[in-house]
Amino acid sequence: MAGLGEACSHIAALLFSIEATVKLRDAKTVTEETSYWRLPNSVKGVTYKQCSEIDFTSAKNSTKKLDTKITACSGHQAEVTPEKNSLKEMDS
């Protein structure tokens, strides 16, 4: 069936396929390019660790854990309120 341009739709599909193939062929993947991130000047190198040695805990949970340790070391009883992430001292 001919369209407004008097050409069949299979020709348009073929041209679209050729264009997509050329774009993919000419594109570079991330691993083919030079690294696009640079270390800050103050950092001389990166120390590598095994996955078992890396702490993947979120910042929120790390803060909670640190607050608990600080409270335990200070000798006061405290209650952590999750809404404000703050400590309230309890009367003993």
Biggest pleated-sheet summary: 2 strands, antiparallel
Q: Please provide the count of β strands.
A: 2
Q: State the end-to-end CA separation.
A: 87 Å
| Widest β-sheet, arrangement of strands | 1-2
Which regions have little confidence, pLDDT < 50, spanning 5+ residues?
none
Approximate shape: elongated
How many helical elements? 2
Spell the H/E element sequence: HHEE
- Strand coverage percent: 5-15%
Give the radius of gyration. 30 Å
Query: What's the overall average pLDDT, rounded?
Result: 76
Give the total of domains: 1
Describe this structure in words.
- It is a single chain.
- The chain has about 90 residues and is mostly helical.
- The chain has helices at about 10-25, 60-75, and strands at about 80, 85-90.
- It has one domain (about 10-90).
- Strands 1-2 form a two-stranded antiparallel sheet.
- β1 and β2 (about 85-90) form a beta hairpin.
- The mean pLDDT is about 75.
